[in-house]
Amino acid sequence: MSRSFKECGSDEARDDDDDPDICSHCATDGKQQPALYFCFNCGVYGRYMCGICLRQHNRFVKNHEIEKIANKSASNRLDYENMKTMKVEKDLKSKEAEVMQFKEQVNELSKENQCQQTRINEFETACRNLENEKIKGG
User: Which of 48, 67, 70, 138 could cysteine-pair with 35, CB 3.0–4.6 Å?
Assistant: First the structure.
């Protein structure tokens, strides 16, 4: 789940719960610029950005899911953050299902390979027996 700078214990955030979250890019430069947008795709937990940083962000990345959080209450912002968490969990379950499917395919192919190897061994044994009979009879 995405956490605001306040929840992370940042010195950049003020104490009042109604204060906006701080733009993470600006905070690294020591500025306290209120975040107006939240990008769900940046980092594991998402990222807060002001309008200026959003423009820079959009120059370098495409197809990121951005939500405007300006004038939203803290609980609404938390809902947006929870959406990211739910999406990550859904993606993880989907990947786990894919892994299970691949494991089943590997097991099936392994069984098929064992059957093929058994047939190869049987043919090799039959060939050796024919060669031995040919040598004895010849």
Answer: 48
